[in-house]
Structure formats: C-alpha cells, structure tokens
Amino acid sequence: MIRVARLVAVKDLRVEWRSRVILWQVLPFGVMTLLLMGFAEGPETTLSPSVAAGLFYVVVLFVSMLVIARSATIESSPGTANSISMLGLDPAGVFLGKATAVFLEVLLSALILLAGTTLLLHLPLALALHSLPSVVLVVMGLSLAGTLYGALTSGLTGSPTLLPLLVLPTMAPLLIAGERTISAIATHQTWSSWLGLLIVFDVGYTVAGILLYGVVEDS
Predict the structure, then answer these.
(1) So where are the chain's domains?
(2) Residues with Cβ < 8 Å from 58, sequence gap 6 or more?
C-alpha cells in the first residue's frame, strides 16, 4: 500500500510540475482573492485575528477545491483509469497517494497565502507562526475529504459543481476549528481541544478513504 501511495503521489506531483497549473493559475487566483479582500477592507482597517483567520481559510478552501477538482480530473481520464484497473493497484494506496499529492500542493499554496494574510489582512506574524500546526491539520483534512469525494463525483454529469456541493458541508468543521484555533491563540485561551478535533477528523477520513475508496471509485 505504501509503495503504491508513493508511486501515485509522485505521478500526480510530476503531472502538476509539468503543467504548472498550480503555479500559474491556482496560486495567482488565491493571491488575487486576498488582494481583493485587502482592498475591500482598506489600508487603514485593522481586522481582528478571528476575521483575518476566517478570510484566510475561505481562500484556502477555494484553492483546495480547484486542486481537488484537477486531481479528480487527472484520475478519471480514460488512459489513467484503464491503467489502474489493468495493473490492479491497491485502492487504499491510490487514495493515500492522491491525498498526499493534494496535501502537498494545497499546503504550499496555504503557506504562501498565510504570508499574504499577514501582509494584506494584518494578521500578526507571531500568531501566523503559532497557527502553523492547525493550518497543516486543516489542509490535511481538506485533502483527505476532497480526494474521497472527488472519486465519488468523478465521471458524473455536472461533477465540477457537484463536488463543492457534496464536500463543503464536511469541510465546514475543519474551517471552523482552524479559525477558532487562531482566535484562541490570539486571546491566550486553550486551543488544544480544537487541534484534537482536527486530528479526529483527519484520522476518520484517512480510515474512511482506505476502506471505501475502491468501492467509491468503482461505483
């Protein structure tokens, strides 16, 4: 399973590296969205950490949906689907590999967007650094859930719009926990419970993906 996961992750990352879609399309979209939010607030406005964190996670959600949709499109192409079927690859390994590739792509974008949030939305740098564990856990959850639901909607009519409709309700707890973690750190409150919720979510979707990805992919 681990070997298959590594091969699939490398394959997806190589495809993205050659296409430069993340670099030239997805990431600029996220940065432009942050710029628009900064312009809307105005240079003299200082947002609370809670609001800045909420806006940051909304942009990360937009970016992750683009990455997840592209990952599902790559896997649903006739050549790739037939090759996986003929090779008899372990579905659990395929799920972990695709989720890993999505995680690395979204995490890179999220870190750049977090730096942009400190500049454009005035999120304190120290607060941004302390929130990195929660950002990693949120991105991991988005990647796991998105990969599973991406396989579910792959090949269906209207899948580009069906995917957000199905996956957004499951991602809402992640975004809320991520925002509350940053708010708790900013106000010197206990935030370990929010990190615990993120860990539970990530573990749950890891187990669900390993068990169900093959069934979902064949449906």
Answers:
(1) 2-218
(2) 175
- Token representation of residue 154: 């792959």
> How do residues 111-165 score in pLDDT, each as one tens digit?
999 998 888 888 888 888 988 999 999 999 999 998 888 877 776 655 667 777 8
Of 136, 154, 151, the C-alpha closest to 201 is 136
Q: CA-to-CA distance for 48 and 60, rounded, in angstroms?
A: 18
Q: Which of 190, 139, 183 is nearest to 47 (CA)?
A: 183
> What are the residue ranges in the chain where pLDDT is below 70?
41-47, 75-89, 155-160, 217-219
Query: What DSSP line would sit under 25-76, residue for residue?
Result: IIHHHHHHHHHHHHHHH-TT----HHHHHHHHHHHHHHHHHHHHHHHHHHHH
* 30: phi then psi, degrees, rounded to nearest 5: -65, -45
| Cβ within 8 Å of residue 199, ≥6 positions away | 137
| CA distance linking residue 122 with residue 52, whole number of Å | 8
